Amino acid sequence: MAKMTKEEVIEVAHLARLAITDEEAIHFAEQLEAITNAMELLNELDTDNVEPTTHVLPMVNVLREDKAEAGLPRETVLKNVKEHEAGQVKVPTILE
Amino acid sequence: MKFYDKTAAELQEMIHSNEATISEITKQTIERINELDPKVDAFLAMNEEQAMADASEMDKAPMEQRGPLFGLPIGVKDNIMTEGLVTTASSRILEGFNPIYNATVVEKLRAAGMVIVGKLNMDEFAMGSSNENSYYKKTRNPWNLDYVPGGSSGGSTAAVAAGEVPFTLGSDTGGSIRQPAAFCGVVGMKPTYGRVSRFGLIAFASSLDQIGPVTRNVKDNALLLQAIAGHDEKDSTSADVEVPDFAAALTGDINGLRIGVPKEYFAEGVSESAKKAVYDALDVLKEKGATVEEISLPHSKYALATYYLLASSEASSNLSRFDGIRYGYRTNKASSLLDFYMNTRAEGFGDEVKRRIMLGTYALSSGYYDAYYKKAQKVRTLIKKDFDDAFENYDVIIAPTTPTPAFKIGEIIDDPLTMYANDILTIPVNLAGVPAISVPCGFEGDMPLGLQIIGNYFDEETVYRVADVFEKATDFHKITPQLWEGAAQ
């Protein structure tokens, strides 16, 4: 049974770009430990000679014609941007 | 004149004989939603003005140009993009998001002449089995307002069960159409993976997600799948296969049909009434000429773990796009770019979504990839093979849709593993990619139970044929919740 520590949860949250408090990390550690332990069930199965399935239909390399098409108008694309200026997305200052 | 209890064919007959106009049907649908939805809470956004304008335009179309769904009202799950109509996937991170294009299925609904009346509540990003994970509201089960409608397409099934709207679209990644359809006593179909375009469906787990129809009867369900099915260049995983005439498959003849009944789906945890309802249904089908044999899908017990590893891994990747830059919620507490991302996502996502993103990130991280993600992909091969083998000898597989009927709101929300177990009988179908429907087949107390009919790849026709025979032989689909008649017309 794998143990999930608070520190591991903080590390995973960081990789996933999720801010997390110590209290939340303790809570999630308990739940994720229970979940990953339940997943250990799969180790009962010998899968050494089994190919992984990434996709259920027998399709490979779906290609389209290499033809340029117009994208959406800039004005439309900016419709859901919180702040924009001169056709550019505005973000908070990140450099001193 | 009331329209809400009518089938598509009955509504068309009323329209064609000038007993009703599309505008009248649309208006009554909206009025009924306005009256009942304060109790049910199925709808997130209404499209009242546009729907009435569309209806009045459609009333001018020549009768001979109208198809079987022309002018009929439909609600759309909130993870399906509707241009100009707010689409949030029930997440704070997409609060107020106004799509700049339509999902392919929405284009197809419009081409079929359907009137979109609004968007339906769901578990955030389709992660959940109770609709309690929506940031905005908790949808209630029309059969008993203290109970969950199921999830994640709980808004879509509750709206149909309440008679608010006769058609809705849901999406199904691990049971998200069939489980709430069972809980709400309506008909819900998850088509074969690739049957319906996913373009414009906000992605949860791309190798499992599929859009499908929710209705009150099988025939209407077949008509709605007809309208949305087909290959789409914009979705490279949509299958370039012929779309048959699904309604024509409802011949009423199942003589000689071979039904396999997997013993693993009647194991511990499945309620006695759910089992009995399915055994009774099998007796009905036997009487119509089908043969029934017990079979084994030996890897069933591994499906839940396989699913949560794969779906969460895919979700952690798909949901990395939500960073607060180009659209969606933005934090106002950030002193660096990293802070900006981390706070935006921490404030924008709910707990279940965070749990799955973290589980997925963990399963994909170096050192754990082979033990979790790759292992699950291999077990997926074994689960798929169980179905491939079964369909060599059987035409359909029949089982309960869920182990139990709906549970009370708040009852298991803090226990993720118990919540996940709701989908134990629907998840293997998504992992294999085959089609399956849930149709009403009985009650436990006042709450409905669902019969799950699983078909071979791209054989929705047989699934519909069996479902239709069962429906015609029984009255479960005619029983409506008390709240149904409570609304005055």
Topology of this protein?
The complex is a heterodimer of chains A (96) and B (489).
Chain A: H1 6-15, H2 22-39, H3 74-77, E1 84-85, E2 88-89
Antiparallel strand pairs in A: 1-2
Helix pairs in contact in A: 1-2
Chain B: H1 8-16, H2 22-40, E1 43-46, H3 48-58, E2 73-77, H4 104-111, E3 115-120, H5 154-161, E4 167-172, H6 178-184, E5 187-190, E6 210-215, H7 218-228, E7 258-262, H8 272-287, E8 291-295, H9 303-318, H10 337-348, H11 351-364, H12 370-393, E9 396-400, H13 416-420, H14 427-432, E10 436-444, E11 447-455, H15 460-473, H16 482-486
Parallel strand pairs in B: 2-3, 2-4, 7-8, 7-9
Antiparallel strand pairs in B: 1-3, 4-6, 5-6, 5-10, 9-11, 10-11
Helix pairs in contact in B: 2-3, 5-6, 9-11, 9-12
Write up this protein.
The complex is a heterodimer of chains A (96) and B (489). Chain A is mainly alpha-helical and 96 residues long. Helices cover 33% and strands 4% of the residues of chain A. Chain A has three helices and two strands, in the order αααββ. In chain A, strands 1-2 form a two-stranded antiparallel ribbon. In chain A, a hairpin with a 2-residue loop joins strand 1 (84-85) and strand 2 (88-89). Chain A is flat and about 55 Å long. The model of chain A has no long low-confidence stretch (mean pLDDT 91). With 489 residues, chain B is an alpha/beta fold. Helix content of chain B is 38%, strand content 13%. Chain B has 16 helices and eleven strands. Chain B has helices at 8-16, 22-40, 48-58, 104-111, 154-161, 178-184, 218-228, 272-287, 303-318, 337-348, 351-364, 370-393, 416-420, 427-432, 460-473, 482-486; strands spanning 43-46, 73-77, 115-120, 167-172, 187-190, 210-215, 258-262, 291-295, 396-400, 436-444, 447-455. Chain B has an eleven-stranded mixed β-sheet, with helices on both faces. In chain B, a hairpin with a 2-residue loop joins strand 10 and strand 11 (447-455). In chain B, helix 9 crosses helix 11 (351-364) and helix 9 crosses helix 12. The radius of gyration of chain B is 21 Å and the shape is globular. The termini of chain B are close together. In chain B, 62% of the residues are buried. The model of chain B has no long low-confidence stretch (mean pLDDT 96). Chains A and B meet through helix 1 and helix 2 of A and helix 9, helix 10, helix 11 and helix 12 of B.
